[in-house]
Structure formats: structure tokens, C-alpha cells
């Protein structure tokens, strides 16, 4: 089997037999499970006779997800050639679902939200290719919009590539602050720079609360600051929420240079979607990881509580910067962190 993608307009409209809709809801990808299968698939289906392909996409999205309110756009066309069969063509769309209703009683038994690609796919030779094309398209828009806001952004295939670039950028005599991040822990970035001889301020190295506070203060005036992010939006914004505020403070002002490493699962369409993601996905998971128990840990969603254990005390939205070279956003083609 061979799957190929094409820019819009290359394949004639009459050849398009399918519509596939890569869709997200509340910052996560939407997949459906067919009633006759145990695997997951991206919404999509056949074009009906004399049906406009755009209407096919809208109809299939509604039928296979229960989407009520959404924004949808065409991204590319594709073809699938199976051995001994004719070549089939289709169009790929991207949809940001704002409201889900009841799932219609058609072929799909249930829908589920994933960070990226589930392990059990119905069409493993087709849909990952289409999904990656869509995400490349979204990332190109994101990088372009960041540039308009004077924020540098770069795409990497994996964390190893990012780590090599960070090591290349930061000199051996520079001091480095580390913002607490599951992504950075996976990279092992603190140990890497300590072994190189850099002064590293990472609160995870603290022996007690007093030392932790001192380290966080020193990180605010380090030469470089490396951290993750709760969300970045395609419209060019960086969204973060903090418990004590040290990370959002350092991103905003203090260190001369800031590197933000973010997985593909953190990309949302708008800053409003970013806040939803932060409040309903990142905060409950981060609170649980830190041993706190605000209501969102149990409810798995934000209820705008006033609990002393809430971890979403400081909200930051970076919309641009005056010093163009200060903040760099490194986007990784992996699902990373919360």
C-alpha cells in the first residue's frame, strides 16, 4: 500500500471520493471506534453522489463525532494505492470542535480523546501520514504567527535533536535556570549541563523548602532559562499557569535568554483553547503529580475553585516580545508532558 499527499488543487474535484477530518476538542485529538472494530480511526467517509466534498467533510464530522459547533478547513488531498486495485483519492480537513452533542446512532460506537496517535489504529498505513501532514501544516502557521510577534520558533522531530541544539546554543560559562517540567526531566537536561560545568539552578535539586525557594530566586537572574509550556496556540501565543509563579515570572522577565520546549500535544488553535487546555488537562495532572488535591484532581476539570491547594494561581499569556532574540520556542514532534 502506498499513501501520498498533494497540495490542494492538484487532484481534480471529480476524483475525490473520501473526506478525512483530523479534529481536536479541548486540545485533544478526536478518534472514533467503529461498532465492528476494536481499533481507533480519524473521522471520515465516502462522498455521496453529487455531494460537494466540503459538505461530505461536515456531514461525516457530525455523524462520527456528534460535533455541533466547529470550524473546519481543507488542508491537502491524498491518494491510497493498494496492490492490484485502482488509486483512490480524498481530501483531508482540519476541524476545531467547540461543542460536542450526542453521538448519532450510525457506524461509530464511541469517540475518545487522545494526545496524538493511539496505538491501535484502524488504518495504520494511512492515517498517521495524513495526521502528520496536518500537524506540519498547523506548525508552519504557528511558526509564521510567532515570527509576526517577534518570537523565534523552530521544529524538531525528537527530543534528542532539541537537546543537541540547546547544548550548541548555551556556552559552558553560562548560568542556567530550569523551570519544572516533565519534558525537561525526560531530556535529562539538568544533569547534562551540570556535567558540562555550568551553574544550574533546578529546584528539584533542593534539599528542603528553604533551599527550593532560594534556587527559584537565583533562576530568575540566570543567563539562560529552560522550561516547558502548558500550551502554545497557532495564532502565536504562549500560555502557562503556575502554582508559585516563578516559571511564568522567568519567562516574562529576568534571564537574558529563554528556551521553551513543547510537545506537539500542547498545540492548540487559539489562546482561549490554550487556557481551556491548561485548566482542564495540565492543572489536574500537575496537581496530582505534586501531591496536591484541589477539586480538579477528582473531577478532571476546572471548577474555578478557591482551594488553598490549587496549582493555577498565576496565568501568563505571552503575546509578543520587545527583544526578538530572547524567547525561543522549540516544537517537538512527540507527545510530551501535561
From TrEMBL:
Entry superkingdom: Bacteria
Pfam families to which the protein is assigned, alphabetical: LUD_dom, NUDIX
Gene3D superfamilies: Nucleoside Triphosphate Pyrophosphohydrolase
Keywords: Hydrolase
Keyword check for Cytoplasm: no
Keyword Iron-sulfur: no
Nudix hydrolase domain mapped to chain residues: 13-136
InterPro entries with a match to the protein in the record: LUD_dom, NagB/RpiA_transferase-like, NUDIX_hydrolase-like_dom_sf, NUDIX_hydrolase_CS, NUDIX_hydrolase_dom, Nudix_YtkD
PANTHER family: LUD DOMAIN-CONTAINING PROTEIN, LUD_DOM DOMAIN-CONTAINING PROTEIN
Name of the protein in its database record: LUD domain-containing protein
Amino acid at each position: 500500500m502506498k499513501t501520498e499527499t498533494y497540495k490542494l488543487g492538484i487532484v481534480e474535484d471529480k476524483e475525490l471520493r473520501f473526506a478525512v477530518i483530523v479534529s481536536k476538542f479541548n486540545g485533544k485529538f478526536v478518534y472514533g471506534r467503529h461498532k465492528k472494530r476494536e481499533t481507533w480511526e480519524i473521522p471520515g467517509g465516502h462522498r455521496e453522489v453529487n455531494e460537494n466534498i466540503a459538505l461530505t467533510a461536515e456531514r461525516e464530522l457530525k455523524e462520527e463525532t456528534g460535533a455541533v459547533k466547529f470550524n473546519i478547513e481543507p488542508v491537502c488531498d491524498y491518494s491510497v494505492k493498494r496492490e492490484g486495485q485502482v488509486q483512490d483519492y480524498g481530501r483531508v480537513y482540519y476541524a476545531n470542535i467547540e461543542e460536542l452533542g450526542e453521538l448519532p446512532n450510525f457506524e461509530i460506537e464511541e469517540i475518545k480523546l487522545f494526545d496524538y496517535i493511539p496505538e491501535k489504529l484502524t488504518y495504520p498505513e494511512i492515517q498517521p501520514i495524513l495526521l502528520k501532514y496536518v500537524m506540519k501544516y498547523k506548525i508552519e502557521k504557528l511558526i509564521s504567527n510567532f515570527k509576526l510577534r517577534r518570537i523565534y520558533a523552530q521544529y524538531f522531530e525528537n527530543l534528542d535533536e532539541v537537546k543537541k541544539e540547546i547544548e550548541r546554543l548555551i556556552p559552558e560559562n553560562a548560568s542556567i535556570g530550569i523551570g519544572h517540567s516533565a519534558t525537561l526531566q525526560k531530556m535529562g537536561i539538568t544533569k547534562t549541563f551540570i556535567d558540562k560545568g555550568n551553574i544550574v539552578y533546578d529546584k528539584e535539586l533542593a534539599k528542603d523548602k528553604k533551599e527550593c525557594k532560594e534556587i527559584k530566586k537565583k533562576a530568575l537572574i540566570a543567563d539562560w532559562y529552560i522550561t516547558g509550556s502548558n500550551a502554545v496556540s497557532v495564532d502565536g501565543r504562549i500560555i502557562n499557569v503556575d502554582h508559585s509563579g516563578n516559571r511564568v515570572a522567568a519567562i516574562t522577565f529576568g534571564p537574558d535568554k529563554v528556551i521553551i520546549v513543547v510537545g506537539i500535544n500542547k498545540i492548540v488553535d487559539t489562546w482561549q483553547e490554550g487556557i481551556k487546555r491548561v485548566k482542564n488537562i495540565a492543572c489536574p495532572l500537575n496537581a496530582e503529580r505534586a501531591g496536591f488535591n484541589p477539586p480538579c484532581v477528582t473531577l478532571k476539570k476546572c471548577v474555578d475553585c478557591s482551594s488553598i491547594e490549587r496549582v493555577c494561581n498565576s496565568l501568563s499569556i505571552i503575546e509578543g516580545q520587545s527583544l526578538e532574540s530572547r524567547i525561543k520556542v522549540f516544537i517537538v514532534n512527540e507527545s510530551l508532558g501535561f
